[in-house]
DNA sequence: GCGTGATTACTCGGATACAAGATGTCCGAGTTTGAGCGG
DNA sequence: CCGCTCAAACTCGGACATCTTGTATCCGAGTAATCACGC
């Protein structure tokens, strides 16, 4: 089990957008070059973020992507869910007579992690990245 | 990101072993049939549990698998780590100048989940499965 | 100047190629139990 | 009754085959800003 690279790209892109000027859209080329990934692939990832209503896109010349919400209203979990989906990490394929106790514990464990990510907002990190 | 089916099989097998007689080894065929999976595949999974020192195997006739530790000393995390490995869920592939702040948060989030799984012992579930 | 059209710089979406890992199967080898058989 | 041998019931491990998913590329289409040109 691993988080996908796409999640990695998404998080870093969001972090960059947060630290950039809020109004000017930033082209996908610039974002891709910064992370060493192809622009076409990154745009595919960003499309998911657009559909999740985290960012918005401006087409045409001088187009690009910019935040749609405030920093304080964007959590790690929002981004991760946009990329990885919201399905549970664990599926009990066995058809028990009753609800699977293992499944219940796994869901609870997962929620522990999600609660933390839900409370982590982009604004907390925006301070740290003045240089890098 | 998903937990693998192997983890599912491993957890259910452990739960069954916990609720069974502690001394008599249980054959892989019986375990496999119960979960609707091929015996050869399940044995491959159980080999990992053996290497993790959670269970032990007895070869030859009347052989099989049995617990190596007490119920109270086997946590969900032990089993999951045995199957999925202990590597971090998130890898920042970008080579920052400094340690990646995103990576740090993700590791912290992951530890939230692992702490919960570490504290969940098999003995807690053994009670629930009298029927199922 | 001022509209109008062409060019340019972008995003968007589908189709497709590629790679890696998860999933599952097959088979030969080693190991223990227990039954059968001969002394 | 004892000991030997042999078959049966197991696990073990490596080598495959297959399938799904993540990763990445290519290309045509649409869209908005900007520039050029003619009036």
From TrEMBL, chains A, B:
Keywords: DNA-binding. The keyword Nucleotide-binding does not apply. The keyword DNA-binding applies. InterPro entries: ArsR-like_HTH, Tscrpt_reg_Rrf2, WH-like_DNA-bd_sf, WH_DNA-bd_sf. This is Rrf2 family transcriptional regulator. It comes from Paenibacillus helianthi. The lineage of its organism: Bacteria, Bacillati, Bacillota, Bacilli, Bacillales.
């Amino acid at each position: 089990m691993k988080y996908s690279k796409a999640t990695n790209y998404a998080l870093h892109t969001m972090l960059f957008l947060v630290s950039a000027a809020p109004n000017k859209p930033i082209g996908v080329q610039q974002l891709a070059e910064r992370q060493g990934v192809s622009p076409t692939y990154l745009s595919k990832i960003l499309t998911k973020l657009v559909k999740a209503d985290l960012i918005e896109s401006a087409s045409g010349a001088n187009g690009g992507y910019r935040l749609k919400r405030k920093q304080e209203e964007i959590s790690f979990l929002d981004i991760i869910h946009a990329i990885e989906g919201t399905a549970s990490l664990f599926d009990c394929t066995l058809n028990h007579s009753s609800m699977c106790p293992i499944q219940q514990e796994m869901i609870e464990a997962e929620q522990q992690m999600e609660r933390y990510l839900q409370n982590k907002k982009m604004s907390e990190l925006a301070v740290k990245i003045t240089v890098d």
